[in-house]
Specification:
This protein is mainly β. The protein has 3 helices and 16 strands. Strand 12 and strand 13 form a beta hairpin. The N terminus is likely disordered.
């Protein structure tokens, strides 16, 4: 599957900016936007559901017949004059084919994982034109995270070479629930690169591939003990200066689950 090349994930849109109050010209009722949403199948009209529960129904259902369950990046438009404030269903026109995020699964931590390449960082800030924006891991729902994996890659000449380079990068995530912290889910992220024997590759371009990260196993481990997840702590070796593993330092990124209103 073709990887997504996001470096400016619209997290503010993902978190639920009102679909009827976007940045478009107020004189133009046609709103165009991109966001991540979950695909919902159905016999009577397939749709996408946003993180804040708004159902987006494509007027042309033909492309929906080719989709499978998961999170998608969608680019679409709608007429805001036809949408009442606070609407929970909106008919949209897709402006490009939806792109599904590749999915990572967590496995139980069975000792210290090994990486042969650093992550770039867990968090990255930039000026979006509307103010400071942040690219970082976040919860989409109680058992699903959006994980923008930031890392160093080689300079490439075209899309085919880009895909070949990405195929060399593998991310694995293990989880742990410590007896002393029964409500905290620890996620250990490892990054490994596979080059040909004797191949020397300079990786000087920072890049991000956005994944759907399934954390259901870790959540179940917490809830099976009668607890409720209070925090997620992601841990990995990061180097924002180069792809040198020797210069990498352990970094942590914490998510306060109390800020999310999941059942």
């Amino acid at each position: 599957m073709k990887q997504l090349k996001f470096f400016a994930l619209a997290l503010t849109l993902l978190m639920g900016i009102s679909l009827t109050s976007c940045f478009n010209d107020e004189d133009d009722p046609i709103v165009k936007m991109s966001l991540l949403a979950r695909y919902d199948g159905g016999y009577y009209g397939a749709s996408f559901t946003t993180v804040d529960g708004v159902r987006l129904i494509p007027a042309d259902q033909s492309v929906m017949l080719t989709l499978t369950e998961g999170l998608y990046s969608i680019y679409f438009q709608y007429n805001r004059d036809e949408v009442p404030e606070g609407a929970k269903e909106i008919t949209i026109t897709l402006l490009s084919d939806p792109a599904r995020l590749d999915r990572l699964y967590t496995t139980p931590e069975m000792g210290t994982g090994v990486s042969n390449a650093p992550l770039y960082a867990f968090e990255y800030s930039y000026n979006s034109g509307y103010g400071e924006a942040v690219v970082c891991p976040m919860l989409y729902d109680k058992t699903t995270m959006v994980y923008p994996a930031m890392f160093w890659r080689a300079t490439v000449a075209d899309d085919d070479a880009y895909e070949e380079e990405l195929a060399k990068h593998q991310f694995t995530v293990t989880y742990e629930v410590k007896p002393a912290e029964p409500t905290v889910l620890y996620l250990y992220v490892n990054h490994n690169v596979t080059d040909e024997a004797g191949e020397v590759v300079k990786r000087t371009v920072n890049n991000v591939v956005t994944y759907e990260l399934n954390i259901q196993a870790g959540v179940a481990a917490i809830e099976s003990a009668g607890q409720k997840m209070s925090k997620i702590i992601m841990i990995g070796k990061c180097n924002s200066s180069s792809d040198n593993m020797e210069g990498a330092q352990e970094a942590r990124f914490e998510i306060d689950c109390s800020k999310y209103n999941f059942d």
